[in-house]
Write a structure and sequence with these properties.
alpha/beta; 2 domains; 6-stranded mixed sheet; 3-stranded antiparallel sheet; 8 helices; globular
């Protein structure tokens, strides 16, 4: 088991919990989609996993991970190549292989010519590509990815999906928060559906269809039915 999460409640303050009764586990070699409407608690769940939420009642266990945030984060005053060099010094990896892999990704992500520039000057899509590089060069057992498709062109999305599949084959686990439900339905092994800070459904697409009573429904249709039902119940 790569992740075991049992959250009784969590939030930015003890007096105002955002998450309640969220329990799930992630196994090696699976891609799990974390989905839900805006304000459902996806980002807060990720922050709880990362240990940056102020108040958490419960237990969270996870192995070594790499994180790709929705909003890219860089060190001031470092070029992309300097970021890569710094990352390499923090990892217990073969230096030559790391450098070869980094150069390959720079070329595939079309960042070679701007590698000596500061990432703060990049477009959103270029910044996102840099964050993907940083994460996958680490070869972790767990990847936590928040809205990875925003700002990426179809070619790079295909490359990202290939990289995810390769990491799954290596035994790594990916937890991916996304609003792109048509893509998620095609690539995810399981889903965690959040609404109003609670986990209202989980499982394979067939499990989600059964829960929503839509035997042939798309993930989008099931998502719509389940979240609407939860809102009506609330």
């Amino acid at each position: 088991m790569i992740v075991s999460t049992q959250i009784q409640e969590a939030g930015y303050t003890k007096s105002s919990p955002i998450l309640k009764d969220i329990q799930f586990s992630l196994q090696a070699g699976e891609l799990v989609g974390l989905i839900g409407p805006n304000g459902s608690g996806k980002s807060s769940t990720i922050k709880a996993l990362l240990g940056v939420l102020e108040h958490v009642e419960g237990t969270i266990e996870l192995e070594d991970y790499a994180y790709i945030p929705e909003r890219p984060i860089f060190y001031d005053g470092l070029t992309l190549r300097e970021h890569l060099h710094f990352l390499g010094t923090t990892l217990e990896v073969d230096e030559e292989k790391f450098n070869d892999d980094a150069e390959m990704l720079l070329k595939e992500f079309d960042l070679e010519k701007v590698a000596h520039h500061y990432p703060e000057s990049y477009s959103k899509g270029m910044q996102q590509k840099a964050m993907i590089m940083f994460a996958f060069l680490q070869k972790r057992s767990l990847y936590i990815i928040d809205e990875p498709f925003m700002g990426l062109d179809p070619k790079i999305i295909r490359k990202l999906l290939t990289m995810i599949e390769e990491e799954k084959k290596r035994g790594a686990t990916i937890l991916m928060s996304t609003h792109v439900l048509d893509t998620a339905e095609k690539i995810c092994d399981r889903f965690l559906l959040l609404s109003n800070g609670r986990l209202i459904a989980e499982g394979t697409i067939d499990d989600i269809r059964q829960k929503s009573r839509l035997p042939d429904g798309s993930l989008f249709d099931c998502f719509d039915v389940l979240t609407e039902r939860d809102n009506d119940a609330g």
